[in-house]
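@channel sequence for tomorrow's demo:
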Amino acid sequence: MSAIAVQHFLRRAKDFEYSMKLCNDANRVAEVEFPAAGKFRSNETLQSAALLAIHAAISYADALRTGLGDAELSADNHQEAAKRLKQVLVDRNVEDAKGVQRFSDLVSKKSAVAYGKGRTSESDLKWIVEGSQRFSVWINQMGKRLNVEGWGNVGTEE
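structure tokens (generated this afternoon):
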């Protein structure tokens, strides 16, 4: 059962990650016109890329936590998820927990990106996308290194 749940979360993470990359690539080539203001902006899809990046990180963390036996997943408190991720790694004597801090930093931006009344700066949005990509590399290495059942070449197809 654990391997199936791990693959479910990995598939979801990879879906978010793929969509994040599409938005990020579109951001580089597209300009959106705001006729009332007479302005063009090119970072409109970067907001979406950043939110997808955060969701990808959350799903990756859920996959690893599930694979390491943590059944307490909650959609409400992602900082708690970061603490629990750190704990499951400590329980396995993993010293390379730098990705946990990156994950904590990413989820701390979720409310601002998803619900904030002001615009998140372009540099912050880019930092989120890049941070999520680094987290993806780190957590995939962790999943393989810890021999998490179900971790592997999960495609985005169902």
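heads up for whoever presents: The helical segments are 2-29, 44-67, 78-91, 98-107, 110-115, 122-145.
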